[in-house]
Amino acid sequence: MLGYHHIEEKDLVDHHQCRLGTWYREVKGNPSISSLPAFQQLEEPHCRFHDIVREIYQLVRAGRQQEAEAAFLSLEDISALVLQKLDDLANCIR
């Protein structure tokens, strides 16, 4: 968005392809973790995070900088929620 890095659309992964998504799928088969509310509440904001990243990418490519900046604020909020769910999950497991 700021022009520091060049990203191709093919470099944008979805919530299944990223490292968190890979881990999430692997742990989904472990009922001692997958039954925890924090784990169950993680998938939706994680998916939304990737949707917003793709939206920002498309807005920037279309030259719609103000809309991209507004979407970036949403990305910050959803990132905080994903991190909170991960913290909640870590606290449940300890």
What labels would you give this structure?
mainly alpha; 69% helix; 94 residues; single chain
Explain the overall architecture.
It is a single chain. This protein is mainly α and 94 residues long. It has one domain (12-93). Helices cover 69% and strands 0% of the residues. It is built from five helices and no strands. Helix 4 packs antiparallel against helix 5 (65-93). The radius of gyration is 15 Å and the shape is elongated. The N and C termini lie far apart (38 Å).
Radius of gyration (CA) equals 15 Å
- Give the mean pLDDT: 91
Instruction: List SSEs in N-to-C order.
Output: HHHHH
The level of helicity is 55-70%
Number of strands: 0
Low-confidence stretches: none
Largest sheet: none
The rounded distance between the terminal residues' Cα atoms is 38 Å
Net shape: elongated
What fraction of the residues are assigned to beta strands by DSSP?
A: under 5%
Structural class, from helix and strand content?
Answer: mainly alpha
List the total number of helices.
5
Number of domains: 1
